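User: Show me a protein chain along with its predicted structure.
Assistant: Here is one chain, sequence first, then structure tokens.
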Amino acid sequence: MNDAVSPSRYQLAEIGALLAEPARAAMLLALIDGTLRPAGELARAAGVGAATASAHLKRLLEGGLLQVHAQGRHRYYHLASDDVAAMLEALALPRARCTTSLPVAGDRSLRTARTCYSHLAGRLGVGLCDALLQRGHLRTTADGLRLQRAGARALIDAGLGDAPVNALLGLNGRGCVDWTERRLHIGGPLGVALTGALLDAGWLRRRTDGRALQPSHEGLRCLVALGVQVDPN
């Protein structure tokens, strides 16, 4: 996928054809958390055999939605970019707008906090983006979202380490539409690095049953100090 050139109708139709196959869709969703996974694991996620998985992965590679990382004799697949992850999340928006019902209770953890290609999404993700923008700690520039020095100081004062926070300065971010909240969270390199800092600090913890993230009590306290509106439900 190329940001500089708008897709033609044929390219758009090809993307639609790639996503229309449930097994390929399952493989893409298994990679939306930013992980690298071998073909066998993706085959299990899609519920298909090895030969069928290989054919699907070849299509996704040729279509520009996946890339492969070779390490010795092993091959690991991952989404081609955070643009692909943003597209996958955004595809849920038209369906979400057609209903006033909320996701079922089992999806509550995903609505609260989850990874979207390794950056923080869900209520906490959009809440953090809102708070940083409202306080002038995050600004929209020609290069995208940029953390300001006052924002770096606020993060440090809230409990993140100096080195991880200083590493965020100069990184470009992007507004990524959150499919459950229909508002923006922070994507791009800045979003990925910021989420990594939150995880390293223990504000968030990875769950073992998917891409939902569990905020710690200390993490919630620190996020509130930054101005994030935390929903107790």
